[in-house]
Design goal:
- By secondary structure, this protein is mostly beta strands.
- It has 1 helix and 13 strands.
- The protein has one helix at about 5-30; strands spanning about 65-75, 80-90, 95-105, 110-120, 125-135, 145-150, 155, 165-175, 180-185, 195-205, 210-220, 225-230, 240-250.
- It is elongated and about 110 Å long.
Length: about 250
């Protein structure tokens, strides 16, 4: 081989080596990507495609559907009703950060007279009363309230088991005229609690809900308490057996 041919071969070899140094890492990064929870593949210890295992989103096989225990509407004044759905989440470590829903109110002829759409969250292993106020029904009276989630829920793992809010000193007065419930909401956490919805449900001796009301607390500082009041314009139609007051904090 001539000297020129040897030099040409040497240059070609150098170019090939440089090209390999550049191309090999690029090709490796393309074809050897680390598993993620958004790559559309079941890899990296996932239990399904982009769910379970290391992924925050849970697979359908890991959760049970939320249960609508009951849904009812309660008269405020003629033509105005509050509606509530009593939802139970049987999943201990699973929550829904946001999900859409719809209330539908029907009269005695099974005619749809009002509907209300909204969105909410579902806490893990807990009861979630979903409350909608001042639904207008006109001259018609709702006798059946239908509630459903309007989208498929996305369940995520929830590790927060703290219960920073507590209810105490609940009393019912003016039962025969315009009922009033007084109670105390306390924040036992070292952190402030914000955007708290508190729903009060009154049950009769047969454990049927006969009244519902809601209030909102924008801020409850850490280690503090706040007096709450719930009122109704008319007396309950049945004797009160128990009162359930449920505070709800949006999931982060």
């Amino acid at each position: 081989m001539s000297w020129a041919s040897k030099r040409r071969s040497k240059y070609i070899a150098i170019v090939v080596v440089i090209a390999l140094i550049i191309i090999v890492p690029i090709m490796f990064s393309i074809f050897n990507k680390k598993p993620t929870c958004t790559d559309g593949k079941q890899n990296g210890g996932e239990r399904g495609i982009d769910c379970g295992g290391i992924c925050p989103e849970l697979c359908v096989s890991q959760i049970s559907d939320p249960v609508v225990i009951w849904s009812r509407s309660f008269k405020v004044v003629d033509g105005v009703y509050n509606s509530v759905a009593y939802i139970e989440n049987p999943n201990f470590n699973a929550s829904i950060e946001k999900i859409s829903y719809i209330f539908k109110l029907f009269d005695e002829e099974n005619i749809l007279i009002a509907e209300r759409k909204g969105s909410t969250f579902i806490s893990p292993n807990n009861v979630s009363p979903i409350f909608e106020s001042t639904i207008q029904t006109g001259q018609r009276v709702p006798v059946r309230t239908f509630f459903e989630f309007s989208k498929t829920p996305i369940w995520t793992q929830s590790t927060d088991k703290n219960e920073p809010l507590s209810i105490s000193n609940t009393t019912l007065s003016r039962k025969d005229s315009s009922p009033r419930i007084d109670t105390v909401l306390s924040n036992t956490s070292i952190l402030d609690s914000r955007n708290i919805e508190i729903v009060a449900i009154v049950f009769d001796t047969k454990d049927n809900a006969i009244g519902v009301s809601s209030t909102f607390v924008e801020l409850l500082p850490n280690r503090s308490s706040k007096n709450l009041v719930f009122t109704w314009p008319e007396a309950f139609r049945s004797s009160v057996s128990r009162i359930e007051i449920i505070p709800r904090i949006p999931l982060k």
